[in-house]
């Protein structure tokens, strides 16, 4: 990941760009750049841990592994620049591309920092007399304590959003009898969790029908799952639930599952014009519900989101409306 060019001169025969061991000459420019990149790696990891530690612990383990690797390599690279030249040289044309790649990797780690779940989602993660909540390294499962319906819900989170952020808005589905599975996506990207629905099908053999859904990018991947599994011989997808989302391709004739799209009237990301434009890609019988005054971040509990609109209703009001619409619709499909 990080450039490990640390104990050599800054290019063979490059004159003054030399190590500390060369007769009083100081380290060259590339050595200082290497140290700066290593320092940036350490600082980014510390920043993520300070500002998003709960989701680092509760999220998919891949991101935590990347943080550990980034920290370890950054420290090794930074400290190794202090060593005198060992007698071998590397050309600057090798070091510069590695520095660029290292900066790109560090920037990616920073960009991938997840949005952390906040209340009331955290409280909804607690089991009680009606719902049992089980959290695993790669998923969260909400299970009714009574006899569950054979129609279950599989829900993909939005990009870089803590999976726990959907516990409060989806818990009413479990309270009314539906098993709810929320995958923890690798690096918070739904396209890296395309196999998660198949795993859920296998893990819940008593479920005979599935509703797949998702928020934002998660809904786009859920639409792909719905289109691929709506004709499965066992436990097919019978419903597609979209939260502030729309499909990436035309499935207006291929998708046989029932569709409910819930969106916000002042969403700054999945804007009303985008939702309207995507209607041609969904079956004609799709149902559209617009929550007046709701924004993109109101479909979960993870705080404000850059680029979003300005809400004109409370988050609690929007959450209640979204949950009620979801429950009423899924109950029409239940068995």
Keywords:
335 residues; alpha/beta; Rossmann fold; 2 domains; 9 helices; elongated
Gap from first CA to last CA: 51 Å
Return the CATH architecture of the largest domain. Answer: 3-Layer(aba) Sandwich
Uncertain stretches: 4-24
User: What top-tier CATH class of the largest domain fits best?
Assistant: Alpha Beta
Please name the fourth-level CATH homologous superfamily of the largest domain: Alpha/Beta hydrolase fold, catalytic domain
**Total helical segments:** 9
Binned, the helix content reads 25-40%
Number of domains: 2
For the CA atoms, what is the radius of gyration? 25 Å
* Percent range for β-strand residues: 5-15%
Structural class: alpha/beta
List the helices and strands and how they pair.
Layout: H1 29-58, H2 61-80, H3 92-111, H4 121-124, E1 131-136, E2 139-144, E3 151-156, H5 167-175, E4 180-183, H6 196-203, E5 209-215, H7 217-229, E6 237-243, E7 258-264, H8 272-277, E8 287-291, H9 315-331
Parallel strand pairs: 3-4, 3-5, 5-6, 6-7, 7-8
Antiparallel strand pairs: 1-2, 2-4
Helix pairs in contact: 1-2, 1-3, 5-9
Protein described:
This protein has about 325 residues and is α/β, with parallel strands linked by helices. The protein folds into 2 domains: about 30-110; about 120-330, Rossmann fold, CATH 3.40.50. It has 9 helices and 8 strands. Strands 1-2-4-3-5-6-7-8 form an 8-stranded mixed sheet, with helices on both faces. Helix 1 runs antiparallel to helix 2 (about 60-80) and helix 5 (about 165-175) packs parallel to helix 9. The longest helix is centred in the first third of the chain and has 30 residues, at about 30-60. It is elongated and about 75 Å long. The chain starts with about 30 loop residues before the first helix and ends with a helix. The relative contact order is 0.11.
């Amino acid at each position: 990941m990080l450039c490990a060019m640390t104990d050599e001169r800054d290019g063979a025969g490059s004159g003054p760009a030399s190590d500390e061991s060369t007769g009083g000459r100081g380290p060259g420019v590339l050595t200082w750049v290497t140290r700066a990149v290593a320092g940036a790696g350490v600082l980014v990891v510390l920043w993520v841990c300070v500002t998003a530690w709960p989701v680092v612990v509760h999220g998919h383990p891949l991101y935590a592994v990347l943080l550990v690797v980034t920290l370890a390599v950054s420290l090794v690279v930074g400290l190794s620049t202090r060593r005198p030249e060992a007698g071998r040289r590397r050309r600057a044309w090798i070091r510069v591309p590695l520095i660029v790649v290292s900066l790109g990797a560090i920037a990616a780690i920073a960009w991938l920092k997840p949005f952390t779940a906040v209340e009331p989602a955290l409280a909804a993660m607690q089991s009680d007399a009606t719902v049992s909540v089980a959290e695993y390294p790669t998923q969260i499962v909400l299970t009714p304590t009574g006899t569950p319906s054979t129609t279950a819900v599989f829900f993909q989170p939005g990009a870089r959003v803590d999976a726990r952020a959907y516990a409060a808005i989806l818990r009413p589905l479990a309270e009314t009898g539906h098993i709810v599975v929320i995958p923890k996506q690798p690096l918070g990207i739904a396209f890296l969790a395309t196999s998660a629905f198949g795993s859920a099908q296998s893990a819940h053999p008593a479920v005979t029908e599935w509703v797949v859904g998702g928020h934002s990018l998660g809904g786009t991947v859920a639409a792909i799952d719905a289109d691929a599994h709506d004709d499965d011989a066992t436990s097919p997808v019978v419903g597609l639930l979209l939260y502030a989302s729309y499909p990436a391709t035309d499935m207006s004739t291929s998708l046989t599952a029932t569709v409910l799209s819930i969106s916000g009237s002042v969403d700054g990301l999945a804007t009303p014009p985008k939702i309207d434009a995507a209607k041609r890609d969904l079956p004609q019988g799709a149902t559209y519900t617009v929550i007046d005054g709701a924004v993109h971040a109101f479909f979960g509990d993870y705080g404000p989101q850059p680029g979003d609109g300005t809400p004109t209703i409370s988050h609690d009001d929007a959450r209640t409306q979204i949950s009620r619409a979801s429950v009423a619709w899924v109950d029409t499909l239940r068995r």
